[in-house]
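Would you mind writing out a protein's amino acid sequence and the numbers that encode its backbone to help me picture the idea?
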Amino acid sequence: MRQAPYPNPDWWERNNDDGQEFFGYDNGDGTTSWYTPDGGYDSDTKTPDEDRDSWKIYSGNLKKLS
């Protein structure tokens, strides 16, 4: 796992297809913002533990960090 771009990420995910890593930060409103290790914004999604279809969204390894 690479270094997170900002302190205290809530989630980490690595895409099995291309190996790209993402760090997720819970926004407290049911959404999570995802960033690449260099701090680039990727997207917002429903927070994984509140989304019953999380396994369909994440095509890699998903780990809760907090």
